[in-house]
């Protein structure tokens, strides 16, 4: 790849991001320690960045996402989100504020939309099996066999084997497998619980009809 557009910092970064072949998410843990994870697509790195935040709840900063083009040039996409600008305060004339006017009842708070991380967890608790992580990137190559083994256990619904499957989450690939395994266990147990409840209700209904 040629040198990115140097007409402005914005153009330089935009060209690197548009031609990126790799993305990294790096979370500062303190005292020179970082948790770093890689991906080949923007969607995947966003999901993995959310995963890093979930695995380190005590860290208040957000992972820094960086894009790399084929020549090794890099551009930071995001980090600690900037604070939203505060709307200017508008003072109303005193004549528009009648004395002792009763306050209007507060409007009910709008239901918050779940973020990606919360939505994935909510889906698992509802019995929805999570998507298998994308290990197509070269950095995941040596872990693909283990991921396939875990996916096979998920497909069979073997919760016991999943819980005892050995995973040492010390790098990005094992961490992704561990997250996938844990969410799958939650989903499978939720499915079993729902099935038992349905069977019990059906049995109660049949007993009532017989009487």
Largest sheet: 4 strands, antiparallel
Percent in strands: 5-15%
Radius of gyration: 25 Å
Tell me roughly what share of residues is in helical segments. 40-55%
Q: Strands across the major sheet, in which order?
A: 2-1-3-4
What gap, in angstroms, lies between the N and C termini?
79 Å
Order of helices and strands: HEEHEEHHHH
Shape from CA axes? extended
Weakly predicted, low-confidence segments = 80-88
Estimated structural class? alpha+beta
- H/I helix tally: 6
E-strand count: 4
Mean pLDDT: 81
Q: How would you characterize this protein structure?
A:
This protein is 44% helix and 14% strand. The protein is an alpha+beta fold and 211 residues long. Helix 3 packs parallel to helix 6 (172-210) and helix 4 (144-156) runs parallel beside helix 6 (172-210). Residues 80-88 have low confidence and may be disordered. The protein has a four-stranded antiparallel beta sheet, with helices on one face. The chain has six helices and four strands; from the N terminus they run αββαββαααα.
